[in-house]
Amino acid sequence: MAERRVKVESEVGLHARPAALFVEAASKAPGEATVAKGDGAPVSAKSILAVMGLDVRHGDEITIRVDGEDADTVLDRLAEIAGAA
Amino acid sequence: MGRSAGEELQGTGVSPGVGHGPALRLARSVPEPPAGGFEGDAGAETDRALEAMEATAQDLSARGERAGGQAQEVLSAQALMARDPALADDVRRRVGEGAAAARAVADAFAVYRDMLASAGEYMAARVADLDDVRDRIVARLMGVPVPGVPESDTPFVLVAADLAPADTATLDPAKVLAFVTREGGPTSHSAILARSLGLPAVVAGEAADRITDGTELLVDGTGGLVVADPTDEQVGRATARQAAREAAAANSGGPGATADGHRVPLLANIGGPKDLPAALENGAEGVGLYRTEFLFLDRGDAPGHEEQVEAYRTVLDAFPAGSKVVVRTLDAGADKPLAFLPPPGEEPNPALGVRGLRMMRRHPEMLSSQLSALAEAAGGAQAVLNVMAPMVTDAEDAAWFAERAREAGIEHAGVMVEVPAAALGARHLARSADFFSIGTNDLTQYACAADREAGGLGRFQDPWQPGVLELIATTARAAAAADRPCGVCGEAAADPLLACVLVGAGVTTLSMGASALPLVRAALGRATLEECKAAASAALDAPGADEAKRAAREALPGVAELGL
């Protein structure tokens, strides 16, 4: 399992295009992938509805966890999307 | 409608032309799936639900690919919703507990809908996207029409309450003969789309709701008339009127002028070099509004100097010596957000926020680089470059822009008049602005406090509104007093009758979507300058938009003859 904490830099938070990119990238993980707002309860990072439901805004910190093979590669990509301005 | 043959309905024409064919309604509501279970095997019922979800996702992705641009982003996100694994798990569970597929889908969506609806303002729009996905899946499972523009092998008249950008993103123009909507006005989305596609459109009010699928409709978008089950004679009359207009338009070559030879250059609104062929084909004498956003949208950084110079020079080179090409500097913000120019903070009302010149004043380096690319493109070109700033509000704005333009070596720097305060203060703006160009779409939106995209406000989305006409006349008077040209580059210039009124009010050039040029040229050629002045004065005296139109028709008999 790999885990990372990232500050969301996108102006629209984890909504709209960044949310879609995030979910598409997470769906590539063969195992489980979750995201949580701050220290809140994690939700599936492969579910656009769950990710939108977190209502992550610009400047919020999120915790991303990825299981399985290639977890670090997927995690890198997710952190990059979330951290992109 | 649909009961008595030949019943005529007078609405507001928002896009000219005549169309005739069977009505098809834009399906909006999907019936509530019945509570209760299903017959047969739970595994099969689950598969049915999941297949409908996947098929909907594929349909949405395909529509997105066809639409491109911003519509594609929305549609791709909707496809992700349709194949959301958490949602699928919930549907599986509900079917396992005995719910029929359609019911299970509707209930599973309801959980997320509540969650998103409580998550604040931004999410409200996403809730509408989510509802649309649910309706599509449920419709598929219940075997009822999927909401949206109907699919048909034969051409039809599209009837709807209103058309949203999402509805029309994938519209096949070859299959649609005309639009009839309940809501909307000349500057609403559906009207602008109809004009750009060359489709007749009428806003018919509540009567539009009574039109049933399959009813034969005759739509005269120029006269604003809709006839249900028309007689042959009615079709013949409307077709003849349209033929007369088309003949007048086809015979209207040469530079724009009134019947007595008062010159009014007729220019084209373009969104990039791709629009040049249509502009030239329709006899544009130059460009009255070159929207430069296409260079900046859908990218992560600003375009480079060379890329900009090339895009500007292509347009300048398309017109002969002495022609006017008016370029609007980047109009970012509000409905045109740019990735690299975010608004300074959350804007509760972006149309009243940091947009147009206001955005450029925060990023002067962006404006300067555009102006220097423009100045370079103008060097050696035969056409005369004019550059104007959008969303100028007061004299200080106008002076600031003129100073930047001078620094960059631009010879003719003007301002767009879209803000009512700029129209009322035009005499002050004239001190530093070399010319005015009235953007009637935004001017109407701001003067009547009616959002261009909002439904149900059609009456106020109309440049014939007395308040709007007064602002235009005030601007034109101030321009004349200061010896400055004053063009109009909004949808108002594309209305042949209103175009004559504008000329009568002192407007010196008219710029419009290329397809509107021939008929405006024809209308102008059928009126003398005196008649135009009389029409303007009668329209300005009218208490309402309808009265103003009637008064203008009376003063312009040659134009009225065309049924305009």
From TrEMBL, chain A:
Its main location: cytoplasm. The keyword Ligase does not apply. Residues 1-85 form the HPr domain. It is found in: Cytoplasm. It comes from the Bacteria. Pfam families: PTS-HPr. This is Phosphocarrier protein HPr.
Automatic annotation (TrEMBL), chain B:
Its main location: cytoplasm. It catalyses: L-histidyl-[protein] + phosphoenolpyruvate = N(pros)-phospho-L-histidyl-[protein] + pyruvate. GO terms for molecular function: phosphoenolpyruvate-protein phosphotransferase activity. PROSITE patterns: PEP_ENZYMES_PHOS_SITE (PS00370). Residues 10-126 form the Phosphotransferase system enzyme I N-terminal domain. Residues 1-42 are annotated as: Disordered. InterPro entries: PEP-util_enz_mobile_dom, PEP-utilizing_PTS_enzyme, PEP_util_AS, PEP_util_C, Phosphohistidine_dom_sf, PTS_EI, PTS_EI-like, PTS_EIN. This is Phosphoenolpyruvate-protein phosphotransferase. The lineage of its organism: Bacteria, Bacillati, Actinomycetota, Actinomycetes, Streptosporangiales.
